[in-house]
GerMN domain-containing protein (Arthrobacter silviterrae), 337 residues
Amino acid sequence: MPDFLPRPQAPSGEPVEQFRRASRGTARRNRHAVGHHAAWAALALGAVLAATGCTAGTVSPKDAVMPSTAGSSATGLTTSAPLETPTTTQTSPVYWLGHSNDAVYLYREFQPTPGTDDPIVAALRAMMTTKPKDPDYFSVWDKPSRIGASISAKNVITVDVSSDAFAQKVDTGIAQRSIAQLVYTATAAASMAGLIDPAATVQVSVLVDGHTGYQAFGHVPLTKPLTRDAGFVAPVWIVDPGNGATFKTLPLKVSGQAMSPSGTLGWALAPMVNGKASGAVLTGTVAIPQGPDKLGTFNFNVVPPLGSYELSVFIADPKAPNGRAGVDTKVVTLTGH
């Protein structure tokens, strides 16, 4: 580790380098042992600190600030944010920011996993260096020159990232959501890899250049461990199909997760004409089996004529006729061959 980057401290106060020597070979072998082996209590995932280069991108002006009608604090309809379940899939969960009506929420995609990084670093690196598949999503992070992660026996994930990742100028609301984006991505990656106990509270401590107390994006003090803030999660979220997907067979199968005051959602399918959605050709509703005001899954099938469509799923806004809240959209193409 270069001298200019102070050694990050694990939550217990031990240098992370000491954890790495002790556990580098065991973290992956024991990732499914949470809750099954007493040895897990002493296990920490070693920090992986690797040079990545540093290139500053340009954030769109509309992505750097919250909509003028929205506040900076979490005001989403979602009141719970369960962790992802362990899986053997070779993809990294990455959360992005996305505009919906006059709000900005967190949405998740899956990115290919590099074989050389540990799961948390791989997901965070993807979050800070790649682009989302859905053009409605965005991120304001810059590519860091250094990033590392460790896990304590108390379910505390420590992320150490270089200060160059925070170079963009954003307002308080976007800064808060960007830190939440990091927390969600780190906890999702750890949970999917089986590296944490999903039944216990999971916290994320963010160090910058090895120190606590950094003012992230000039607005958010990183002085204490953070947890998932459910208010930042999108109330409606299409998981499948992905944006830009092409299908040769019908029906078009739609799934996702959402929370609705009524326990139901609306959906619409509008043909794409010259790159824009025109009037809907099919509409309908779908129930969330978990009921009103509970985060749950939804599934439905659609059999439209062949063509390209914008699929929308939303919450009917009781305050406005034909109003839509929490809208998520995907563009799909049905070829039939």
In short: Helices lie at 16-23, 61-64, 119-129, 172-192. The chain has a mean pLDDT of 80.
